[in-house]
Amino acid sequence: MSRGTDCSEFFADVVKNVASPTLEIKKLVYIYLLRYAESEPDLALLSINTIQKALNDQNQVVRAMAIRVMSGIRVPVISQIVALAVKRGVTDMSAYVRKCAALAIPKCYKLDPTTMLQLTEHLSTLLGDKSYYVVGAAVMAFLEMCPDRYDLIHPHYRSLVKMLIDMDEWAQLAVLRLLTGYARKSFPLKKRRRKKVANGDAGFYSDEEAEIESAGKVDMLDPDLELLLAACPPLLQSRNSAVIVAVARVYRHLAPPEYLTKLAGPLASLLRTEVDKQHIALISIVSIALEYPQPFSAFATHFLVHHLDPPHIWRLKLEVLTLIFPFVDTHTKNLILSELEYFAQGYDKELVKEAVRAIGRCAQSETRNAVRCLRVLLRQVESSDETLVAESLTVIRHIIQQKPTAHSKTVIRLAKALDTTTNPTARASIIWLVGEFSGMDDGNNVAADTLRILAKDFPSESDQAKQQIVLLAAKVYAHHLNRIRPSPSGQDDTNGSDSEDEARSHPIALLFSYILLLARYDMSYDLRDRARLYKSLLANPSSTQLATLFLLAPKPTPQAPSPSYGRQDLTLGSAAMVLGKNESIRGYEPLPDWISISRAPSPSLRESAATEGNTSKGTLAAIAIGSGTKGSARSGSPAFGSPAFGSPKFPQLDETRETGPAPSKFNGKVETSLEDFLASDDDSEEEEEEEEEEEETEEEESEEEDDDDDADDEDEEDAKLLGGPK
Asked: What does DSSP assign to residue 577?
C-alpha cells in the first residue's frame, strides 16, 4: 500500500484483525481502514463496534486512535457515532485524547453539518482547556470549521496569549493567524494627540498658563493588544521560519511602526537558510520595506548579491538595496553603488538590466547621489554591450527629466555618442532627449546640428530611430517658428507675407521639409502617418499654438516604482503576496478592516474566563468545608471564610465572615466547623508542647539538686580524713 499498489481486495481479511490486542497490528489495521473505508463502506461498518469498544480502553493511545479512525472514516451513516465519540473525548482525562477529539471536530462537521451547534460547544470547551497542546489543536479546528466566530474567543483570549510561548510551532502558527484577525475585529484603532508644554519653565506660583502645543497624533493601543504584542518577541527565536513570518505579520498589520525594528534581525537571519526560505523572507522584507525601510538599513550587507543566488533571489535583494539606500550611511551607499556597477558589467543580461534599473532607482530616491549615479551610467553608454547601453540610456533619460536645466552638458555628451551607438532603442532615447532640450539655451543648443547629421543616414535608421528623428524635426521647426513669429500688434499684410517667406526659406525649414519628404516615401505606414500629422500642424507658420501644445507641452517627471509596488496591501505571508496578485488565488481572504470604536466588543467579555475560574475555586472550597476533609484544608488553599478568599460580589458573606457564623445544632449537638476543628488542633498541640517543656525543666532541676548533694558528701568525707572541721 505504501508503494501505491491497490490492496482493496484484502479489505475483509484485514478488517478482521481490528480487534487484535497487539498495538502495532491495531495501528496497521487502522491505517488500512482509513485508506479504503470510503471505497468499502459496508465492510467498514462491521468494524465500528470494535472501534467503539476501544474508546473504553485503559491505554490513552488506543482511545485516541479510536477517535482518529472513527472520524477519518468518511461514511455519513456513522456521523452520530462519531459525534458521541467526540463528546466522550472532550471530557477524557488524558490531554492526548482531548487533542485528538479537537482535531476530529472538523471531520465530524463535514460528515454531518447539522451537528454544528453541538460541535461548537465542544470547541468552546476545548479552547478553555488548561493543556496548551489541546488548545492548539482546538484553534486549528476553529480556523477550519468556524473562523469568523470570534465571540467564542473572547473569554479565552488572554489564556491563548499566555499559552502562546509554550505551544508547538504549528499550533503557534494557527494561534497567531487567529489572533491577527481577532485583533482587527475586537480592538479599534485609536489615535491620541501627543502634547508638549511650550512654557515648561514657569514657576509654581506663576499665573501664566502653560501653552499646549500639538505634536501630532500617535497610535493608542488597547491593553489586550499590547499583551499580544508583548508575547510575540520570544517567538522570533523560533527554529521554524514560518513562525518568524507569522510574528512579522502580527507586527506589520497590528503594531505601530516602532515595533518593526524587532523584525529586521530575525528576518535578515533567514537569508542564511535554504533558497525557498530566503525567497519568503525576502518577499516579507520587501513588503515591509516598501513603507518602512528604516529598520533594515542596519542589515544592508545581508542583501548583497552572491554569485550563486538564483534570479528570483537576486532580484529581491537588489530591490531591498534600492529601498534602504536613502537611509544608510555614506560608506554603505558607496558599497551599494559599487556592487551595482560591478553587476552592471556582468555577463548575465537580465542581471545587467536589473542592476542598471537599481542604479536609476537609487538616483531617484536621493537626489544628492543622482550625479554619481548618472556618472556611473554614462560610463556604461560607451560599452560594447547593446543591452547595457540601451538600459542605461533609458535610466539616464529618467534622471535627466527630473531636473532638465542641470543636465544640458549631459545631453551634448549623449548627442556625441550617436556616432558610436548602434542599438535602436539607445539611439531613439538619445534623439528623444535632444528633442526635449531643443528649446533650451539657444546659444549652445545642438538639436539643429544633430538633426542635420541624422538626416544624412535617415533611410538606414531603424523604425524607432526614424520616428524620433521626425519628431525631432517637428520640435526644432516649432521652436524656430515661435522665435520668428511676428508680434500680434497691427502690421500690414506685406510684412506678414515676407516673414512667412523668410521662415520657409530658413535652413531649419528646409531641413524639416527634407525629413518629411524622406518619411513620405518610407515603407512604414506609421511613419508616413506621423509625417502627414506634423506637416498639417506646422503648415501655417503664423499659427503655431496647436503645434506648440501638441509637441512642446511640459511632460510629467517619470517615476520608476519598485517592482513589488502594490504588494504591501496584501497579507504578509500569504500565497497571494508571493505571487503578487490576489484575484486568481482561490481561498485568499484579506485581513478584515479595523473595527470602529462604536462597534467594538466590551473588554469585560475577555474577563469572563477569570471570573468563572474564581467561581469554580470558591465552589470547590465550599465543598471542602462541607465535607470537613482535613487534608484539603492543610494543602495551603484559603478557606471559604478566611480573609484570603475574597467575595467582592457577595457583601452578605463578608458581613457573616466578620460577625462569625452561629453554631448550628444537629441531633442536639453543636456542629463544629473546619476552622474550629483546626484551631482546636493547634491549641492542643501548643498545650502538649508546653507540658513537654515543663517536664524537661523539672528533670533538669532534679539533676542539678542531685549533683549538689553529691558534692556536699565529698566535702564532708575529705574533712573527716584531714581531721579538721568541715
From this structure: H
**pTM beyond 0.90:** no
Q: At what angle do helices 525-537 and 507-520 cross, to 10 degrees?
A: 150
350, 344, 278: which is closest to 317 by C-alpha? 278
Q: Helix, strand, or coil here: 190?
A: strand
In contact, 324 and 292? CB cutoff 8 Å? no
- Angstrom distance (rounded) from CA 38 to CA 31: 13
For the residues 448-471, what does the mean pLDDT come to? 91
CA distance 526 to 519: 10
Taking a C-beta distance cutoff of 8 angstroms, is the pair 484, 504 a contact?
A: no
Angle CA 251–253–254, to nearest 5: 65
Please choose, from the candidates 253, 236, 254, 255, the residue with its C-alpha nearest in 3D space to the C-alpha of residue 245.
Answer: 236
Among 86-100, 203-217, 406-420, 502-516, whose mean pLDDT is lowest?
203-217
Angstrom distance (rounded) from CA 210 to CA 317:
51
The C-alpha cell at 458 is 535617415
Give the span between the Cα atoms of 478 and 535, in whole angstroms: 11
Question: What distance in Å separates the CA atoms of residue 445 and residue 135, rounded to the nearest whole number?
Answer: 77
How far is the first Cα of the chain from the last one, in angstroms, to the nearest whole number?
A: 115
Write out the three cell numbers for 401: 527629466
How many helices (DSSP H) and strands (DSSP E) are in the chain?
A: 33, 4
pLDDT average, residue stretch 75-90: 91
Let me know the angle formed at the C-alpha of 615 by 613 and 616, rounded to the nearest 5 degrees.
Answer: 65
Q: Are strands 669-670 and 665-666 parallel, antiparallel or unpaired?
A: antiparallel
> Among 30-34, 384-388, 493-497, 656-660, whose mean pLDDT is lowest?
656-660
Percent of residues, the chain, with pLDDT higher than 70: 76
Neighbours of 623 (CB within 10 A): 12
How far is residue 418's CA from residue 452's CA, in Å, rounded to a whole number?
Answer: 13
Please list, in sequence order, all residues whose beta carbon lies within 8 angstroms of the beta carbon of residue 260, skipping any fewer than 6 positions away: 251, 252, 288, 292, 295
Q: State the helix-helix crossing angle for 463-484 and 424-436, rounded to 10 degrees.
A: 10
Cβ 450 vs Cβ 457: under 8 Å: no
**DSSP letter assigned to residue 194:** E
| Residue 689 to residues 7, 169, 341, 676, 703, Cα–Cα distance (Å) | 80, 58, 92, 20, 21
Residue range 345-376, pLDDT digits in tens:
888 888 988 999 999 899 888 777 788 888 88
Enumerate long-range contacts of 675-681, CB under 8 Å, 24 or more apart.
675/639, 675/641, 675/642, 677/628, 677/630, 678/630, 678/633
DSSP structural state of residue 191: E
What's the CA gap between 294 and 601, in Å, rounded? Answer: 35
DSSP-derived 3-state class of residue 6: coil
Beta-carbon contacts of 618 under 8 Å, excluding residues fewer than 6 positions away, are 640, 645, 647
* C-alpha span between 543 and 199 (Å, rounded): 65
Nearest partner of 338 among 289, 300, 309, judged by Cα: 300
